[in-house]
Amino acid sequence: MNLYDELNAYLKSQILLTVATLGKEYPWTCSVYFGYSDGRFYFTSKRDTQHAKDIGNGAIVAFAVADSAQTPSAVIVGVQGRGFCRPARLDDATKIVVNYGQKFKEFLADYGSLPNLLEVMKGGTVYVIEAHSIKFTNKNLFKDAQILSFDLRA
Does position 98 have pLDDT exceeding 80, yes or no? Predict the structure, then answer.
């Protein structure tokens, strides 16, 4: 498996993404459940949240993914990056269903039924982060270097 495949496998194994936005007065962070595929992160949020207001129709964001169960002495694995975040468009629909919706179908039972889940998501908007760069830290893979950076705009 090449390093890009390792990055993809790690991101697909995680469920929480921290997103940092910048509003008119201050920065803001939030944690969201996400799906990932080929440099794009997908998440849902209601339009009245602070981060959704900061994103508006599109904004540069920073993001991070880390397994919070890691201890300081553990083998460190995580991702940091930045990219452009925007509300999803119709042409994103297939990738959203495959890489976001399918990822969380196992949690459907927690809501009792699809209508109950849809009620929780009511008023939500799907957002897409198109990653510009990703820094992947993985002590298992990189030993001394520990960090691999990808510029996804190339």
Answer: no
Distance CA 129, CA 21 (A): 12
Residues pairing with 50 in the sheet: none
C-alpha span between 15 and 33 (Å, rounded): 5
CA–CA gap between residue 36 and residue 8 (Å, rounded): 8
Tell me the DSSP string of 26-83: -EEEEEEE-EEETTEEEEEEETTSHHHHHHTT-EEEEEEEE-TT--TTS--EEEEEEE
- Distance separating alpha carbons of residues 76 and 96, to the nearest angstrom: 29
CA separation (Å) from 132 to 115, 137, 153?
36, 17, 5
Say whether pTM exceeds 0.90: no
